[in-house]
Specification:
Blueprint: E1 19-20, E2 36-38, E3 41-50, E4 69-73, E5 89-91, E6 107-117, E7 128-133, E8 136-137, E9 139-144, E10 147-153, E11 159-162, E12 172-179, E13 192-194, E14 197-198, E15 202-207, E16 215-222, E17 227-234, E18 238-242, E19 247-250, E20 255-258, E21 270-276, E22 279-285, E23 290-293, E24 296-299, E25 302-303, E26 306-310, H1 324-336, E27 341-343, H2 351-360, E28 363-367, H3 391-405, E29 411-415, H4 424-436, E30 441-443, E31 456-459, H5 463-471, H6 478-481, E32 485-490, H7 501-510, E33 514-519, E34 527-529, E35 533-535, H8 563-571, E36 575-580, E37 585-590, E38 600-608, E39 611-618, E40 628-632, E41 645-653, E42 665-674, E43 688-689, E44 693-696, E45 699-702, E46 708-711, E47 714-722, H9 729-732, H10 742-748, E48 754-763, E49 768-776, E50 782-791, E51 796-805, E52 814-821, E53 826-833, E54 846-853, E55 870-878, E56 881-894, H11 898-903, E57 916-924, E58 947-955
Parallel strand pairs: 26-27, 26-33, 27-28, 28-29, 29-30, 31-32, 32-33
Antiparallel strand pairs: 1-10, 2-15, 3-4, 3-6, 5-13, 6-12, 7-11, 7-15, 8-14, 9-10, 9-12, 16-17, 17-20, 18-19, 18-21, 21-22, 23-24, 24-25, 34-35, 36-37, 37-40, 38-39, 38-41, 41-42, 43-44, 44-45, 45-46, 46-47, 47-52, 48-49, 49-50, 50-51, 51-58, 52-57, 53-54, 53-55, 55-56, 56-57, 56-58
Bound molecules: 1-methylethyl 1-thio-beta-D-galactopyranoside.
1-methylethyl 1-thio-beta-D-galactopyranoside binds near residues 459 and 460.
């Protein structure tokens, strides 16, 4: 039985073909002299619930759209109109519709768009014109002045249509019908929000007679002779001019001259022009040669190391409709954090982003708009990339990417797409790309045998496996064994983390075959929300969603760097500073691949107990890449107070650069000289008891429970052992990782509901001893915990002894004490800072004297979780108390309890209470990357074992 009686006019929506009517793909450029008209701005808009709810009469000239709404183009309609136009949907890899390719649901939100325009004054009457769409999700049908000009799919790819014959001087109307779902949606199952709309620019381009159509700039570099060879192949003959190089040559003719090469570290671009009879086209030429040589990816003869990130396009208000200033902000932030590479996960970005990568210098893996991840749920049955009917669409996507972006020196690798399984269609794409552009490598992570690819790539491989790959002990096909390795995704930056980056970097730098990796991912895709702060999956009532898995970036949705970015910056710093502080020398190594150190100046400072006593410039030679030098430090300042002493050596920008100001810190290290003297308290008078209280030095305790009540004039509540932290996303782990998801195991074993049994309060000669057993209901495991209090009359010392009992098979979240203070705001400490750090995320933590406030100590992870601990703290002051640690401790203070933090789902759920809750931890569990990758390495596990630690309390007033 068939309910569809007639073929409707919307059959193209479910057609696997890429579309009809569009011009062949070509290079994307802004002409110097041909006119263009931006059609961005306010468009009339009407939303219908299905693809065919409305006929196409709206496209006719003279149609009255008076009652229509308006949306901004570029934009996504679901992010406009305050919910009147539907809402965004977030799924990771699940298709939010039944998997029945190429069919899509009847409920298919369809946005009709109308844009009226007049040609600008002086628009030439000769030649032709094209209208270009740079990105429309996911399928569009287009009319100009009532004539249909075509339909297309391929959301993040450009499509152009010839329109010159239809244009009028005035009262033109461009009509675009956009369907949210189409056959193309099956190819666009990236882990991100589903956001329909015309989300990139729409431009009308005049095409003069004799204008350039397509051209391919071949600009290679011979590093032996320092020579560049330029050849511009052009569909339309013309001349190629590069004044700085005295080049004036015909298209198609090669010319070889001495040049400065382009690299991501030294992004030298030469301005040139392609001149055809009808048009002048600006060229920005970077000479560089990418090659696979000796099993390595080399640029200009040298193996490079990617210190990269995966970048999705994201803006918390505009979604994937980014303006150039936001793109520039991304690039500047990357450069300022020592990042040298971007994988454009998982689609070609707005073309302007690649211009910025050329200009500021970033290696780019340009990835095609292709992912069919949801087919994994059906064991990859019917995967479009293994079904010949879809191959034309795949080839169309490959061509639209390569042709658009081929003239960017920053693009060194083409990527076929992401998480699309395996299949003949991918092979066809790789073959086509290899044939079209032999000057770059081809990447695809899903191809573990490297049948189609030139580089072995994996995601989230654990440290040990990466090391085996580095050693060449991973086996694999013959072809793979001869290829370099990258991790196209690692270090899952969801919530607090990622941990273990320094350990990866050590492995990357130890083995030539390992050419680095790309953190997942650059930015949290949180959506600005009136009630929730930033919304994530599920906040729009989606029927299927993947929660806050969409917030896994190194920067928060508003582009504030998260601690993960600062950690990454330190771990990948391009100058290595090591040495023996006591010996008075420092070894400086240039870890750049191409740049010498002439752009940096160095400075030393000498700290005693966190206070800088002297500083000065450190002369360091302009080392070549890979070179190192021993540099003598000055004589340590004399006469200073005896305490913990260390050198801090910094590498700073010597001058303003395109991306950073003079004195911007690039790299640093601290070299210990003398150790810290530990605090001592010589016990004086012992405890005395009254009817209600026990007194010991400055403190009073409850006589019955031994609970601390006051220190000097400061009230202290609830001081006790604490093992619970609000699990991080990395603690909770991803659903497919079952055995060691400690966040879940901690809950199972009741670490969030430990009971504290009082076993004795003993008044000794010089100490008050409180004996307890801390254990969860239902389980036999427990922690015998003894609090031993002593005082020298003014200061109060607490020694906590912990003895685990029972069969402990999992690590602890944290181990320390917590207590409440009735008022506290300003905070000072001497220890790691200025930001947070955990056992495997504290490379960027610098020892010093820091000050902050309780509010500013919090790291605003979009989904609240453990955060804000300052590591290696020697002493801290807040709320009238000073605490000295023996040994150093982790310090956390917040206006809510851990239980409240744990319960919160959005930052707006956290309401400050009257008490400031302080945690002083002897240990914290590592963070790892298990929200998608491996968990914390064993050396960062906080094991339950017999432990003792002390704090000395005094008052600051
Ligand atoms: C991997 C995806 O490639 C990426 O898009 C993102 O979803 C990431 O995971 C998690 O945030 S795929 C995963 C199954 C390893």
């Amino acid at each position: 039985m068939s309910f569809r009686t007639t073929a409707t006019s919307v059959d193209y929506v479910e057609d696997v073909s890429p579309g009809s009517g569009a011009l062949p793909p070509r290079a994307w450029y802004a002409s110097s002299d041909a006119q263009s008209l931006s059609l961005n701005g306010g468009w009339s808009f009407r939303l219908s619930p299905t693809a065919d709810a409305e006929d196409d009469s709206f496209a006719a000239e003279g149609y009255d759209a008076g009652g229509w709404a308006e949306v901004s183009v570029p934009g996504h309609w679901v992010l406009q109109g305050d919910g009147a136009f539907g809402s965004p949907i977030y799924t990771n890899h699940l298709y939010p519709f039944p998997v029945d390719p190429p069919r899509v649901p009847t409920e298919n939100p369809t946005g009709d768009h109308l844009r009226y325009f007049d040609l600008p004054e002086g628009w030439p009457a000769d030649g032709g014109a094209v209208v270009r769409f740079d990105g429309v999700e996911s399928c569009a049908r287009v009319w100009l002045n009532g004539t249909e000009i075509g339909e297309f799919k391929g959301s993040r790819l450009p499509h152009e249509f010839t329109v010159g014959h239809l244009l009028k001087p005035t009262d033109n109307v461009l009509a675009v019908r956009v369907h949210q779902w189409s056959a193309g949606s099956y190819l666009e199952d990236q882990d991100q929000w589903w956001l329909p709309g015309i989300f990139r620019d729409v431009t009308l381009l005049h095409r003069p007679v004799g204008s350039a159509v397509d051209f391919f700039v071949h600009a290679s570099y011979d590093h032996v002779g320092s020579l560049g060879t330029l050849r511009v192949d052009s569909d339309v003959d013309g001349r190629v001019l590069v004044p700085a190089l005295d080049i004036d040559v015909a298209t198609g003719e090669p010319v070889t001259v001495a040049v400065v090469p382009w690299t991501a570290e030294t992004p030298k671009l030469y301005d040139g022009e392609l001149v055809t009879a009808g048009e002048r086209v600006p060229l920005r030429i970077g000479f560089r040669t990418v090659a696979l040589e000796d099993g390595l990816l080399k640029v200009n003869g040298k193996a490079i190391l990617f210190k990269g990130v995966n970048r999705h396009e994201w803006h918390p208000v505009k979604g994937r409709a980014l303006d150039v200033e936001t793109m520039r902000e991304d690039v500047l932030l990357m450069k300022r954090h020592n990042i040298n590479a971007v994988r454009t996960s998982h689609y070609p970005p707005h073309p302007a982003f690649l211009d910025l990568c050329d200009e500021y210098g970033l290696w780019v893996i340009d990835e095609c708009d292709l992912e069919t991840h949801g087919f994994t749920e059906q064991n990859w049955r019917d995967n479009p990339v293994d079904d010949d009917r879809w191959t034309p669409a795949l080839l169309d996507r490959a061509a639209r990417m390569v042709e658009r972006d081929k003239n960017h020196p920053s693009v060194v690798i083409w990527s076929l797409g992401n998480e699309a399984g395996t299949g003949r269609g991918l092979t066809a794409m790789a073959e086509w790309i290899h044939g079209r552009d032999s000057s770059r490598l081809v990447h695809y992570e899903g191809d573990w045998n490297c049948r189609d690819t030139d580089i072995y790539s994996r995601m989230y491989a654990e440290h040990a496996e990466v090391e085996r790959i580095g050693q060449g002990l991973d086996g694999g096909t013959h072809k793979r064994r001869a290829l370099p390795f990258i991790q196209c995704e690692y270090g899952h930056a969801m919530g607090n983390g990622p941990g273990g980056l320094a350990d990866y970097q050590r492995v990357f730098e130890a083995y030539e075959r390992l050419q680095g990796g790309f953190i997942w991912e650059w930015i949290d895709h949180g959506v600005t929300h009136p009630k929730l702060g930033f919304a994530y999956g599920g906040d729009f009532g989606e029927e299927l969603h993947d929660g806050n898995f969409v917030c896994d970036g190194l920067i928060f949705p508003d582009r504030t760097p998260s601690p993960g970015l600062l950690e990454f910056k330190k771990v990948i710093e391009p100058v290595r500073i090591e040495g023996d502080g006591a010996g008075g020398t420092v070894r400086v190594r240039n870890a750049f691949d191409f740049a010498d150190l002439s752009s940096l100046s160095f400075e030393w400072s000498y700290q005693v107990d966190g206070k800088t006593v002297e500083h000065g410039p450190l002369p360091v030679p302009a080392l070549a890449p890979g070179e190192s030098a021993e540099v003598k430090l000055p004589q340590p300042p004399s006469g200073g107070p005896g305490g913990e002493a260390l050198w801090t050596v910094r590498a700073l920008l010597a001058e303003d650069t395109a991306w950073g100001k003079k004195d911007h810190q690039v790299a640093w290290a601290q070299l210990p000289v003398t150790e810290r003297p530990l605090p001592t308290v010589v016990p004086g008078d012992g405890p005395t008891a009254s009817e209600k209280l026990i007194y010991l030095g400055p403190a009073s305790f409850d006589v019955r429970t031994g609970a601390l009540k006051t220190i000097g004039g400061v009230d202290v509540t609830g001081l006790r052992l604490d093992v619970w932290r609000a699990p991080t996303d990395n603690d909770d782990g991803a659903s497919w990782q079952d055995d060691t998801r400690y966040g879940l195991l901690w809950r199972k074993y009741g670490f969030h509901r430990m009971q504290h049994r009082l076993d004795g309060v003993e008044l000794g000669e010089d100490a008050l001893t409180v004996r307890t057993r801390v254990a969860p209901a239902a389980w036999e495991i427990g922690l015998r915990t003894t609090y031993r209090w002593t005082s020298d009359g003014t200061r109060l010392k607490l020694t906590v002894s912990v003895d685990p009992e029972g069969d402990w098979t999992i690590p602890l979240p944290r181990l320390g004490i917590r207590f409440g203070l009735s008022s506290a705001d300003a905070v000072k400490w001497y220890g790691g800072g200025p930001g947070e750090g955990y056992p495997d995320t504290k490379s960027a933590s610098m020892l010093g004297r820091w000050h902050s406030t309780v509010d500013e100590l919090q790291t605003p992870y979009v989904r609240p979780q453990e955060n804000g601990a300052r590591p290696d703290v020697r002493w801290a002051e807040l709320g009238g108390l000073r605490v000295d640690g023996d040994p150093e401790f982790w310090f956390t203070a917040r206006r809510w309890t851990t239980e409240q933090l744990d319960a919160a789902e959005h930052l707006t759920d956290l309401r400050p209470g009257d008490t400031v809750w302080v945690n002083l931890d002897h240990g914290q569990m590592g963070i790892g990357s298990q929200s998608c990758g491996p968990g914390a390495l064993p050396q960062y596990h906080l094991l339950a074992e017999p432990t003792e630690f002390s704090f000395v309390f005094s008052t600051t007033e």
